[in-house]
Structure formats: C-alpha cells, structure tokens
Amino acid sequence: MVVVVVSWGAFLQTCLILMVRANQHNPRETSCDLHAKQSELNSFLWTIKRDPPSYFYGTIHVPYTRVWDFIPENSKQAFQESSIVYFELDLTDPYTISALSSCQLLPQGEKLQDLLPKDIYRRLKTHLDYVKLMLPSWMTPDQRGKGLYADYLFNAIAGNWERKRPVWVMLMVNSLTEADIKTRGVPVLDLYLAQEAQRMRKRTGAVEKVEEQCHPLNGLNFSQVIFALNQTLLQQESLRAGALPVPYTTEHLIKHYNCGDLNSIIFNHDTSQVPSFQNVTLPPNEQVTAQEIESYFRQELIYKRNERMGRRVRALLDEHPGKTFFFAFGAGHFLGNNTVIDVLRREGYEVEHTPAGQMLHRRSGELPDADAPLEPFLHERPDLQEDEEHLLELLEKVEHKLKKKRRNKQKKQRHRQFNELWVRMEESVTAEAPPPVVRIINGYITVQAHPQEHDRANQHRTFSGSASWSPALPALCVQILLLLLLS
Fold this sequence. Notes:
Blueprint: H1 8-22, E1 45-49, E2 54-59, H2 73-81, E3 84-87, H3 94-102, H4 112-115, H5 118-138, H6 141-145, H7 150-158, H8 166-175, H9 178-181, H10 189-199, E4 203-206, H11 210-218, H12 222-241, H13 250-258, H14 264-272, H15 284-319, E5 325-330, H16 340-346, E6 350-353, H17 384-408, H18 416-430, E7 437-441, E8 444-448, H19 451-457, H20 472-486
Parallel strand pairs: 2-5, 3-4, 3-5
Antiparallel strand pairs: 1-2, 1-6, 7-8
C-alpha cells in the first residue's frame, strides 16, 4: 500500500492557490500602448505625508484579475506595509451585504408592475426575457467550468426584479450586457483587497455606511427615474437590433485604468456606478432632464461623499498618529474637482501623487530596505511551482492507489464494506455538484464554493475561470483528503 505523508494545512493551501492561479484571466491582454518601463506608467497611488506615511489608492469595480499585473509594485508594497486598511464599505461584513440588498427593495406590499407605466413595464419584461434566453450563450467556458450556470446567475442578478425600486432596476438592466456578464464570478478589485487584508490579519474598516451610499440613489424623483429607465431600455433595445454601436464598456474602463489614464470623467461613472444619460439626439427638454440627473448624481454620489469621506479620513489619521493607513476608494474620488485629496489638503495634510517606480516614504530614521521580504498575495507565492510539483506527485499516487483498491475489491472479501463505502463517497465527489453560492456584493457577482466544499477547505474565497482549468482538480483534491482520512 502506498503511504502518502503530507501536511494537511499545506495541502489545502496549495489546492486553493492553484485554483486561484489557474483560473485567472490573462491580465496582459489589453490594446493600450504600455511603456516598457514600469516607472514611466502613471499610478493610482497617493501618499499622505506624515510620520509614518499613509496612502490613498484608487480602485475600479472590475475583476481584479484583469488589472492586477498592471498595478505598480509600490502600490502593492504600500498595501502590504500598512497595518490598517479602510474601504468605502466593508464588503466582507454580512450586515453590509444584507443592508445593500434591503435598500434596493420597494416598501412591503408594493410591486414594480403597479408603479411603472404599462408600456415601460412591458418593454422591461421583454428585455429581461431576452437576457435570460441569451445568457447561456454569453457565458464563458471558464464560468461554466466552475459551476456558475446561466439560471443561477440570472436569478442572482434579476431573480427578484419585480420587488426592486425602479432606479435599481435601471442599474440592473444597464449591467445585464454580454460584456459585463462575462466578468461575473471574480472578486472586483476592492473586494479582493478586502479579502487579502483579512487574510493578512490587517485591521480593516469602512468610512461610509450603506445608507449613505444607498439613499442618494433612492432620492431621484419619480419622473427622473422613469426617464432614466426609459433611456436605458432604449439603449439596450437599439443594441439588440444592431442599430447602435456598443457604448462605453467595462473593457474601455479596464484599458484606461491599466494605461494609467487619470481622467476624472472616465472613472466618475465607475465610482458612482451610474451610466451617463447625455445624448445629443435627445430633444431639448429631455437633454435638460438628463443634465439634471447627472448633476444630481455628481453632487450626491461624488462631491458630498468626497467631503464626508475626507473628514472621516482626517479623523482616523488624527486618532491614530502612529499607524500607517491604506485607504482604497473608487478612483473617481481622487480625480477631478472637490476630491477626497482636496478635502484632506484643506485640513492641513500634504498629499502627493506617487508615480510607479518611486520609492515609498519611510518613517523618520528608517532606512529603505529594497530586499525586505513582504508577505506574498495569495496567488503570488514564490514557492508555488514546488507546491504544484508536489501536488502532481500526490495526484499520481492517489490515482495509483485508487486503481489498486478497485482491482482488489473483488479479491478481498473482508474489505468489501470499506470498498462499498469508498465507491459511494467517490460517487458523491464526481457527481454533479450542488449549485454554487452566488452573492451580489454592491451590484457585482461573486461565486463561492457550496457550503459543504467550503467546510472541507475551511476557506472563504472566490475563484475565476480559465480555459486551462481542469474541473477534475477540485475533485482530486477532495479525493486526496478522503484518502488521507481513510488510510
């Protein structure tokens, strides 16, 4: 009998890392002209000059795998060296997720059908039926490979649409495009940083409450909401008919971010998560309405929030003078006019942009140590290659042992009960897995393992898919665990 000796903790970690590494999209696939030297790239890092220094970092709401390799090393180093990491919202807090969901719902007893004009309701239902029909063809093999199926995804995003407030239905429709669907299932950048901060046992927090983000969206008057929903449906209907070119998409946003384009107009829409309704083809009275809506969102979701967030950043810095903070907010909060940076400068702090390649400021008296090791991010472990080779050896041994057990099944009567047990357990591993747990976090979808798998690995992660990913790997990892347990 083959004896397999392995550290359970190391094995579990190896399986997890391989899943993350194997499932990443290729972040180098972009059409922008990147400079050969990283030091020539712009970055979304700003240093708050104090002793010790603290940092602002601009994020975007896209899968972290699409931008990670373009994030300069000094930005990652600033995150690593910071003892406290703050976000707009705490996306790892169950209350935050629950409150975000609740604020989108109509008052008890109300239905969307009773509020919307009949024509708009009919068009909305027709469009959602179209999306549900097309969703299977929009999804990637990577998504299907990790158990994210069209029905689950549609229900997670739009399953209770008749109970949502019209403004949130408008945002939902705007996100139900083929390009955006293909990105679902991977943590967006700020969520990934929050997960990594927790894994590295950093103190985390949030500078805003859910209500402060949610109530402004619910504050549009009814006629403005109907206008916004109608414009969104018109755009989607034109796209379906092929009469309109694909508008500004997530791909454009990723390109500008990876290229270091510090353009406030681009990132303000991502930060507020509200589409633009400006259109030169609109009649004059509707152009006025579109301008009013954009002005309202800019004031409520950018400027007022910047003021509030800046004051709270200052209070945190004043309260903890000896700590290094890393504030990760949407990039739009740091670009343009009346930014969080402007608020902090008015409060007397010196804040400077930190280009890629520039060394970070140090605590006074502390010498820079370029060779000082930093804890690697989950998918950047330097010893991963050795772990992969070790895991492959284990898989080969497991396959050999399983074949040997099957050959001996009929020969050794005394092992019959054990073998029958093993067959049943093996079938439970290779049978079709239960639906994954699909979560909506601030309008973005993440997927985590089914609770049973979650308990086995004692991990709370989300994974992306890849054409190189083998669906057999999770099953083999589980088989090794079972084998170790029963050996």
